[in-house]
Amino acid sequence: MTHRRDLGYWDEGRNLAEASFYADALGPEPRVLPPVAFRSRRFSELEDEAVWTRDWVCVGAHEAIPENGDLLPFTVGTHGVHVQRTAGGIVARFNKAQHGGCRAVPLQCQTGAKTKCSFTSCGYSRDRAAIPASELGDGTPEMHQYLGLRPERLLTAQARSWGPLIFVNLDVAPVWPDAELAALGRMGGFFGAHKPSRSRELWLEYAANWKLMGESLAAGGPVTGERDVWMLAPTTLSDGTPAQAAWLFPNLVLIATAASTAVVTLQPTAMGQTLCRLSTYGADPQHDLAFWREQIGRRAAQAEAAHLDLARFGTQHRPHTIAAAPPRQNGAAGAWMQAALAARLARLPADDLPQPLYQNPRG
What we know:
Blueprint: H1 3-6, E1 10-11, E2 14-15, H2 19-22, H3 36-39, H4 41-52, E3 57-61, E4 71-76, E5 79-86, E6 89-94, H5 141-147, E7 156-162, E8 165-169, H6 178-188, E9 197-198, E10 202-206, H7 210-217, E11 224-226, E12 230-236, E13 242-248, E14 252-256, E15 260-270, E16 273-282, H8 285-311, H9 332-346
Antiparallel strand pairs: 1-2, 3-8, 4-5, 5-6, 6-7, 7-8, 9-16, 10-16, 11-12, 12-13, 13-14, 14-15, 15-16
């Protein structure tokens, strides 16, 4: 029995971590991933193990925490973490209260969907916006929930920057893809003196799995890629403006014209919901924000339609698809995503272990 089987990643009679599960999604004429990959809690737990706890995840921009002591929460998979600006630079830590201060995880927080908590953000609830240092004084709920009395004793995570963006990685000794990101920066021209300012951030939520959302946002022409780290594709906006779309797996999508860049960080809030945190960079980014919101909405609508289709595939809602093979994957961005995900599933440890590295799946 392998480590993957011990994890309990079985759904609809299949081992979701085995190569046979996603074999048809690879190759010269790939099919879409099996629909369970977009609607199963088991698969989302597998992604937590293979992706969210091992990849570099974009959590926001330096402009969100400009002063020493400012703190930015971001739930990575099912793990409540934050980054804080200190005199020595950006520090990433796991929140002191992973369960929001609850003695046990409440039933409403065990559904696989992020819940609105009146107390604070944690690994099971929705994040709040960046917290100014002035709100983190001694005795405040925020101080207790995120930092505790001795922040220096909290479990730390890795933090790095690329341009104005902040990334974290929950793995023990991850490799920062410096050369790969440098190459993408040269090819994309996403940030720089020609795009000097950042807009405010909008939080937009859509009814689609995060993989389908990234696929739709990054859709375009033929893909140029750097292994399974990033992809870049030419695309055209709804008004005919040429642009470039990039996807840094798993959760950062950049869409850039010559004058402006849209930055979208993807955050799963349920198997079928994705929160898109949108901001823009340019000479007049606040003016550009409405335009980019409309562009993101158009692409998100395609993701929502695809998710609804796959969520019903093989069920009584679409009886003619029961026992049928998944549809063909016709998008270059989608094919790249499937290969990137499969590569991470293939890298999961194959040794027998008594429990998962980061969680203990229920059920």
